[in-house]
Amino acid sequence: MRKLLNTLFINQTDVYLSLDGDNIVLLKDENKLGRVPLHNLESIVTFGYTGASPALMGYCADRNISITFLTMNGRFLARVIGESRGNVTLRKKQYRISDNEMASAHIARNFIIGKIFNNKWMIERMTRDYPLRLDIQKFKEVSQHLSTIIEEVRICEDLERLRGLEGQAAISYNRLFDQMILQQKENFSFKGRSRRPPLDNVNALLSFAYTMLANDMAAALEGVGLDAYVGFLHRDRPGRASLALDLMEELRGIYADKFVLTLINKKALNKDDFFKKENGAVIMTEEARKKFLTAWQNKKQEKITHPFLGEKITWGLVPHAQALLLARFLRGDLDEYPPFLWK
């Protein structure tokens, strides 16, 4: 199991990253804001376009420290990594399966089972914890509907059909999402997903959380020698980390959605943490991103017992654990890929 090292987040848009010895130096208008030793970093995430020095990128690439560039609202731009150290046999197996739609469906359905199961668990947990604040009948009906879809997914061997079933489950789950927002309803409501750009406060948070989770998953896949850009459910598209999107499906609800709901319901963020641009896009303020990222890193440090491995790990290691299990399946060490089924 990989040790969970620190991720350095650079939240200001006008900070330039450079190298000084074994340290990363943060520069703003040629003034030094700070320096951080690189030996205890696993990744660097920077928001904006100012950039990083070739020396720093080379140093990080050589030591397997990824540098990810995001826009201010968290949209992925680029990721700098070193040479692939993965097992070529493992990647060739990944590519062969990806080229076979039926074989891809056999793996992809486990990603979807994990996603729907975890969304069902969230719904059941809400009915248990807040029985007087929710429409229990509606929640129970959706939970039962998700159970029915899971049974259909288990025997599905067609990717298009699988996507259709996943879509049905997502529609049912999303109908309840607004009810899961228990606080600050006047400023945080969910009427449906809006992505590029996010058009309300909730979607701004969800998009940011999904970007962070996708980045963590891509790093985990590269770490076990898999190609994050060649997926099974999400097909090839230039610039899209399809396998990272595949594998994060089972963590979207239980990790990202639940995290966003916690921020809202515990009032860690409020309406003043967002602003709307002329094109209607809703963006988090710089201070809001700091609060979000601090909470995200704290969440990654919380310990859980992995449902398949039976070992205590941090939430931050869950993407690495699932990437490792997928690699073991592709190598033939496991009969089936075990999705992350949380309770």
UniProtKB/TrEMBL annotation:
One of its GO terms (molecular function) is DNA endonuclease activity. Its cofactor is Mg(2+); Mn(2+). Keywords: Antiviral defense, DNA-binding, Endonuclease, Hydrolase, Magnesium, Manganese, Metal-binding, Nuclease. The keyword DNA damage does not apply. InterPro entries: Cas1, CRISPR-assoc_Cas1, CRISPR-assoc_Cas1_C, CRISPR-assoc_Cas1_DVULG, CRISPR-assoc_Cas1_N. Mn(2+) binds at E166, H234, E249. It comes from the Bacteria. Its EC number is 3.1.-.-. It holds the Pfam family Cas_Cas1. GO terms for biological process: defense response to virus; maintenance of CRISPR repeat elements. Coiled coil: none annotated. Belongs to the CRISPR-associated endonuclease Cas1 family. CRISPR (clustered regularly interspaced short palindromic repeat), is an adaptive immune system that provides protection against mobile genetic elements (viruses, transposable elements and conjugative plasmids). CRISPR clusters contain spacers, sequences complementary to antecedent mobile elements, and target invading nucleic acids. CRISPR clusters are transcribed and processed into CRISPR RNA (crRNA). Acts as a dsDNA endonuclease. Involved in the integration of spacer DNA into the CRISPR cassette. NCBIfam families: cas1, cas1_DVULG. HAMAP family: Cas1. This is CRISPR-associated endonuclease Cas1. The gene is cas1.
